[in-house]
Design goal:
Number of helices: 17
Largest sheet: none
Mean pLDDT: 80
CATH architecture: Up-down Bundle
Helix content: over 70%
CATH class: Mainly Alpha
Order of helices and strands: HHHHHHHHHHHHHHHHH
Number of domains: 1
CATH topology: Amino acid/polyamine transporter I
Structural class: mainly alpha
CATH superfamily: Amino acid/polyamine transporter I
Number of strands: 0
Shape: globular
Radius of gyration: 21 Å
Distance between the termini: 14 Å
Length: about 425
């Protein structure tokens, strides 16, 4: 017998929700992935950042509409579950959780690597420990998690503004020549990878049931988070390329810190490196938050084991899903190819974004309080742009994603068969 669906408390304000989005967006993407994208696009990585941002706007508008119409925990998973079918919803949640657990484990490695610059400790152990620590922060409460995230976001945004301010006087226009060394195909490949850096705005919709006045707060916070992040991305990318040139960025695992070293400002270099630590930490925090809420929502809908549909009696948080998320990420926190992992994460979330855009077209226009401007053009453009970006990713990713998808289909079929058999036994008795 399934337990009664658990309900979460609404405690997040507009600032909290926007901060969760900014915390999820600005992290390894701009502090690390920028270098990998520059190796594909050259100085034209600026166009890659812009194209990825525009593509994100289309999907953000769809998320805004759907979050206003269906303000339930789970985000893209819940939209697919309610508007299409339980099977489509399950696969959406399955693919999203897989991508985010891989991302969380990799982000923890990035965090540990930056920390090793200040404290020489084993990277893998620090990474696993970080996953567990941030799982415990999430366990204490969503408001407490949001407070920690707010502090991390303020610091990392300040670090990026410092980077822009210090680097502005050291920009050399000659570093932008030639602008398109790998042609426009390199720009598109870079955009597909940079899309990874914009993925966090959908995480706001995942905590819909914990946001005050969700019909209005959710759409506004999604668009604010994306807008703030996009402006910072463009300014930071322009400054990084202008200061150090594409070749140095491409070869660096910490492009912003290396760009600061060129300026000769040691204090700024240290603060930017610390900013990277805080930025990646906030991404890890919100990734655990997001995965735990999607798995909680799936359990509440009866699609994964029922024991995950549990709230802590004191903190009111989905503690089982939080602890499982932290443990899985900690277990996987043992290296990974950055380009490959970013491609896997981008592809998985791109697939869910295609479904989100389609869902925005399917939901009744009378239902949500937020309406997409020029409807239905943005969802159509969102589907087309996401599909184009997916085609630009590594070919090997398609095989890996197919394996994960097939595993999800098998799990769903076996789970349904077991459930039907159990119901049959109950009806007989």
């Amino acid at each position: 017998m399934r337990r009664k669906p658990a309900k979460l408390l609404r405690s997040l304000s507009l600032f909290d929700a926007t901060s969760i989005g900014v915390g999820a967006i600005i992290g390894a993407g701009i502090f690390v992935i920028l270098g990998v994208a520059t190796s594909l696009a050259g100085p034209a990585v600026l166009l890659s950042v812009l194209i990825a941002g525009v593509c994100s706007v289309f999907t953000a508008l769809s998320f805004s509409k759907l979050s206003s119409a269906i303000p339930k925990e789970g985000g893209a998973y819940e939209y697919a579950f309610e508007l299409f079918s339980p099977f489509t919803g399950f696969l959406t949640g399955w693919m999203w959780i897989f991508a985010q657990i891989v991302v969380g484990a990799t982000v923890s490695i990035g965090l540990a690597t930056y920390l090793a610059l200040f404290i020489p400790l084993p990277v893998n152990l620090v990474a696993a420990g970080a996953c567990l620590v941030f799982a415990l922060v999430n366990l204490v409460g969503v408001k407490e998690s949001a407070t920690v995230n707010n502090a991390l976001v303020v610091f990392k945004v300040a670090a990026l503004l410092l980077f822009i301010a210090v680097g502005a006087s050291h920009i050399q226009l000659s570093n932008f020549q030639p602008f398109l060394p790998n042609g426009f195909s390199g720009v598109i490949s870079g955009a597909a990878l940079i899309f990874f850096a914009y993925l966090g705005f959908g995480r706001i919709a995942i905590v819909s049931e914990e946001v005050k006045n969700p019909e209005k707060t959710l759409p506004l916070s999604i668009l604010l988070a994306l807008g703030i992040s996009a402006v910072l991305y463009l300014l930071v990318s322009f400054t990084a390329v202008g200061v150090s040139g594409p070749s140095r960025i491409s070869a660096s695992g910490s492009p912003l810190a290396d760009a600061m070293k060129i300026t000769g400002n040691e204090l700024a270099t240290t603060l930017v490196s610390l900013g990277a630590i805080f930025a990646i930490a906030s991404v890890l925090l919100t990734t655990i938050l997001g995965v735990s809420r999607v798995s909680f929502s799936m359990a509440r809908n009866g699609q994964i084991p029922d024991f995950i549909n549990s709230l802590h009696p004191r903190f009111g948080t989905p503690y089982v899903s939080i602890l499982l998320t932290g443990l899985l990420m900690a277990a996987l926190a043992f290296t990974g190819n950055l380009l490959q992992v970013a491609s896997i994460a981008s592809f998985s979330v791109i697939v869910t974004h295609v479904l989100v855009n389609y869902a925005a077209m399917a939901v009744s226009t009378k239902q949500p309080k937020f309406r997409i401007p020029f409807y239905p053009l943005p969802p159509v453009l969102g589907i087309v742009s996401c599909a184009a970006l997916a085609l630009s990713l590594l070919s090997g990713v398609w095989v890996e994603e197919a394996v994960v998808l097939c595993a999800g289909v098998a799990f769903y079929a076996i789970s349904n068969a077991v459930s039907r058999r159990a119901q049959g036994k109950e009806s007989v008795t």
